[in-house]
Specification:
This protein is α/β, with parallel strands linked by helices and 266 residues long. The protein is built from nine helices and 14 strands. The chain is 31% helix and 24% strand. It comes from Fontibacillus panacisegetis.
């Protein structure tokens, strides 16, 4: 199959556990792109910390960010599509977080906001800086000039298990995603990597059977099942592997490179 659009998750997929993109993987991606295939990073990250990887490889095109909530042009940083959520619906979730001492942040496409930036722990600041993010003080809803696309909570795996269990019992107006062992995201009900990838493929005139997707976590399920070929990393949970068409090596073993060589160069 000649795949015309390839969607790659970033953390746990494209990058190894040290958040490094291997030179071998970058070379194979560029080789395939030079043959006319489009690549799109499809990630829970924001544009500011995903576009640099596209530029590092030498790619133009698009990034699907915030787990599908915002699609952005790499070159112009123009927002192609956003799934804006209702911020007032977040109030009970924020109250829960304050009561249970759970860290949360609020995201527009290009900015991230937290309560009391000045009082953030060094650990929290280090986490944001590791992902190339600089948080700003959270204003009131009426003071936002850009749509809110994602609400994220973070903590230990045990804390996130408890939060997910509690919130699963609520009547949901949002799409609630376990986007990592230590993260839970709330987004617009229609927002997902799969729906954003489907919209991008339609705009580019590419049928699903000519789309390939590679990912490693629950937030990748919708894009893995939409794509004509969905490939899970070996470091994926069993449910993700079961939903994929094939499984490649782990992110620490250049699984993306191996999958691309197998399905796009052989």
């Amino acid at each position: 199959m000649n795949y015309k659009l390839i969607a790659l998750d970033v953390d746990g997929t494209l990058l190894n556990d040290d958040h490094v993109l291997s030179s071998g993987t970058a070379e194979v991606i560029k080789m395939i792109a030079d043959q006319g295939t489009e690549f799109v990073l499809c990630t829970g990250r924001a544009p500011v910390n995903s576009i640099p990887y596209m530029k590092q490889i030498g790619l133009e095109g698009y990034v699907i960010t915030h787990n599908g909530a915002a699609t952005v042009n790499v070159t112009t940083e123009e927002i192609v599509h956003e799934f804006a959520l209702n911020p007032f619906g977040l109030d009970p979730y924020m109250d829960y977080c304050r009561k249970n001492n759970i860290h949360f942040d609020v995201n527009t496409t290009f900015a991230i906001y937290v309560e009391g930036v000045a009082g953030l722990s060094q650990e929290a600041l280090d986490m944001y800086h590791k992902f190339m993010m600089e948080p700003e003080d959270l204003p009131g809803w009426a003071d936002f000039s850009e749509p809110i696309v994602k609400f994220t909570v973070t903590g230990s795996m045990e804390q996130m298990d408890k939060v997910y269990s509690d919130w699963s019992q609520w009547e949901q107006e949002f799409n609630m995603l376990r986007s990592g062992d230590f993260f839970i995201d709330l987004m617009h009900k229609d927002s997902s990597k799969g729906s954003a990838l489907q919209k991008l493929a339609a705009v580019r005139g590419i049928p699903a059977e000519q789309v390939m997707a590679i990912g490693n976590y629950y937030n990748d399920l919708t894009m893995l099942t939409f794509a004509g070929l969905g490939v899970a990393m070996d470091n994926s949970p069993l449910e993700v592997k079961a939903a994929a068409d094939n499984v490649t090596a782990s992110n620490n073993e250049e699984g993306v490179k191996l999958a691309l060589q197998k399905y796009c160069l052989s």
